Amino acid sequence: MENRKMEIQTNRLDRGFYQYQDEFEEAALRVLRSGWYIMGKELKSFEEEFAAYIGARYCVGLGNGLDALWLAFRILGIGKGDEVIVQGNTYIASVMGITINGATPVFVEPDEYFNIDASRIEEKITERTKAVLVVHLYGQASRMDEITDICKKHNLRLVEDCAQSHGSKFKGRTTGTFGDIGCFSFYPSKNIGAFGDGGAIVTDDEEIAKKMRIYRNYGSEKRYYNMVVGTNSRLDEIQAALLSVRLKHAAELNEEKKRIAAEYDKRLNNPQIELPKVREGSDHIYHQYVIRCKRRDELISYLKENGISTIIHYPIPPHLAQAYEYLGHKKGDYPVTEACANEVLSIPMFNGMLKEELDYTIDVLNAFV
Ligand SMILES: *Cc1c(COP(=O)(O)O)cnc(C)c1O
Same domain for 202 and 292? Predict the structure, then answer.
């Protein structure tokens, strides 16, 4: 292997640009030349296209995924004194979406698919529980049949963090359509990524969509008539136009990642490496391809020596983050979540990954002793 060392990054965003370079450049120039940069026709058509793609009635474009999350809870009236159930092994933004509103996150351990363990939700429900936030982590849908039943039974709101699951399905239904609100990020590395920040919510509820449009624009429907204390969170015209290009190719982009995942599944054969499992009925879109390894940190150094960079999603679970010291959790409180933080590793997985890069990565991983 020494004589064919390659440099491989976990993600290569430039490759995603060059795949549709002409279309992206045409879209960006169209907006630049139009003289209209915020809240115009590009946003309107992207919102319609994205709602149709997900299978929801409404889409409201926002500035980023975190805004989608905290505004979702704000609009549902969830705040101080309320509890929201969420998996322990998620990106910090999921939790901040809850706590920005003053609500308290109640953590549940993940299942073997890195999603919330549906069988452990009910034991965490109290008088104060108002909602469940499911995170379709790494691109795989959570166990939505059981989770929607629990929410109905206990009269809880259901919010979906779909920042990693654009187009991912559970039993034929697209993530983002199971709950009251589906929250999306278009951060550049996401499966449908912008060239800067972007986000959106989808919903079937006309009232929620209307409120979201008001909140994202300083709490006003009519200019200078401010009804609520909102925020400034708008998906700008250039990002919306570029996202329309990406969305047009969403199916082939997700298929490409699935093909890469299938190669890893088939050809990785190192007994020290545990491959990601796919839930029955779930259509995994592999935002990340996440392996587990007991000697994870040694594996990272070994891969680095061989030119392969990796990322840990995520090394510090939210309950142990300094920001959440005030919640009073300690190490050992969520052993399944903490084992994930110690063992998971995201290996190279991106649109435009070359066959020789994939072959090399597989060979190097299989040769780890
Ligand atoms: C990326 C991400 C977010 C936040 O999105 P931003 O656009 O970066 O604010 C939220 N939740 C999850 C699971 C994410 O991966």
Answer: no
